[in-house]
Amino acid sequence: MLHLVTDRLESRWSVERVIADAAAAGVDAIQVREKGQPADVVWQTAQAALRAVRGCDPEPMVLINDRIDVAMAVGASGVHLGGRSLGAALTRRLLPREMGWVIGVSVHSVEEARDAAAAGVDYVTFGQVVGYAGNTPGVDRLAAVVEAVSLPVLAIGGITPENVCTVLETGCAGIAVIRALSAVDSPRVEVLRFREAMARSSIRPRRPLSAVGASIRQNSRNSNNICNSEMGDVE
Distance between CA atoms of 117 and 50, rounded to whole angstroms? Predict the structure, then answer.
């Protein structure tokens, strides 16, 4: 799985362009991450993401970082929670799995990953995997998280087409990237480079996330249609 995480401050292009190019090139999920932005900006970006994925085959998941209210309002596939977000267990009660909601959580240790699993989330994202010297959990710690929980684990942090195969050797479910798709000359070209590099890996994910996403996409479309219909009645 290739998961785009947006970041307005890190992006070389408009967030909307990065989303549109990445969706057209074949990312599996788009996480709308608008830290510090007001609700209307998050809403607008989420709507842009939903428009961008419409008609893609398969249709990428659209997840909203932190803002459960916006995710529910636009009919997104789900939410991704960080350290300061509403707790995972409470979020699970608000967004039940049987209604098709996907919940992901950022973790930085085996213990945090186990806590997230106990709270009933659908996947975790672990990082920083590659990068900052002296402050890098690394591939070995990623492998420990993959081994410790019965959840799909995505890797994040410093991942490029050149090192992605090393990351995938852990059996993780895929990767999440920010600058690698937003701070580049062509997000579309970089998606294709990642796809080609990932296809060369002979290691299959221990617990794929795609199976979760496949069951969500129809719900996301239906929820969005209901939401848009209701919004159309508002003067």
Answer: 28
Question: Model confidence over 133-185: pLDDT tens digits?
Answer: 534 468 999 999 999 999 999 999 999 999 999 999 999 999 999 999 999 99
Amino acid, single-letter form, for residue 190: E
What whole-number distance in Å separates Cα of residue 80 and Cα of residue 77?
Answer: 10
* Residues sharing a CB contact under 8 Å with residue 119, sequence separation 6 or more, in sequence order: 87, 88, 89, 92, 105
Hey, where are the domains in the chain? 2-232
pLDDT higher than 50, residue 224: no
Global pTM reads 0.89
Which is it for strands 123-126 and 102-107: parallel, antiparallel or unpaired? parallel
| Cα distance between residue 231 and residue 235, in whole Å | 9
In CATH terms, is domain 2-232 a member of 3.30.70.260? no
Q: Which residues contact 44 (CB under 8 A, 6 or more apart)?
A: none
φ, ψ for residue 169, nearest 5 deg = -65, -15
